[in-house]
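Internal ticket - ligand job 343, manganese (II) ion:
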Amino acid sequence: MTIEKQAQDFETMLDSAEKVTIISHFNPDGDAIGSAVGMREFLAAKGQDARIIMPSPEPAFLSFLDPDDTIIYFSENKELAKSIINDSDLIVCLDFNKPERTEWMSGTLISAKAEKVMIDHHLHPAGDIFSIVISDPEASSTCELLYRILMAFSYTEGDPYRLGLTVLTALAAGLLTDTNNFNNSVTPYTFTAAASMLQAGVDFDYLNNMLFKRFSESRMRLMGHLLKDSMILYPGLKASFMTMTMDDRTAYGIQDGDTEGFVNLPLMIHDVEISAFFSETPDFIKVSLRSKGHVSVNSLARKFFNGGGHERAAGGRLYIPISDVRGYFVESLEQFLLENGKI
Ligand code: 5GP
Ligand code: MN
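stdout (structure tokens):
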């Protein structure tokens, strides 16, 4: 079934729903927040209330997308969040491919009586609890996919002006962050969508400033420190390895979201095709993987790092001491590249 046809079924479902809840993944990024706010504001403009519940808060630089601070965080307001989810008749799940990506919210999501719709661009959607799964791994972002879906609604009639600036701006924000400002995962449709957004009045200069030019001094200094003192290159593997320890976090006063994008930096080096960034947290090691060649970091993350994602951008977790991470990474990558005939 085409996405446009699925969009019509989704529109029918939305039209008959009274209590719509919109959710996305743990540690929401620009695509998660942008798609959730875009969906909510679309419904609001039609006179339909919907609430957004996130498992955990977004980093501060994304809060401008929810200026009235209306998102409810499960981590902070568990009882309220649970009662809203349990009371919903439709739950729209954005930018994640399996319930576990909502962490501590997944039990509530799975057992909720509401109909559930998944709209996502990750590989391997686990769709068993969903009435409709609109999955397009070719889409640069969930925001791009949601734009395509909303444009196929009979309400919109293919006219981006019908969506309004608030919706378009939120969707453009997720499109920009997930593509790293049109640097990766773009298709002709990505630019078609962006051109329509621009034409309809979205201020891309403003979004660029809000999303990419408001970092803290401490983030810049930490970036310098990690590139100089932590990054290790493995030319035989065409790989870069970098870690951030709890001590780095404390020394630089790092907030959630401050390290966004660090993993992309080593890919600027000639001959580095895989970049791995590991950051120590109190509970686990957060893994970020990027590729600019033909290595699927999605497969790598699934096989060795308890995670997944996209072919060129993936993540996961390790439950080993930070001092063991380097050895584990090199061994895993060697084995993976050998098995896949890359070395
Ligand atoms: P990032 O490196 O920006 O945290 O994540 C990159 C991509 O990998 C995201 O699109 C996200 O969906 C995926 N990802 C990150 N962490 C995890 C994880 O723990 N599990 C899975 N399955 N995917 C992840
Ligand atoms: Mn996304």
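Auto-summary: Residues 322-339 form the longest helix (18 residues). DSSP finds twelve helices and twelve strands in the chain.
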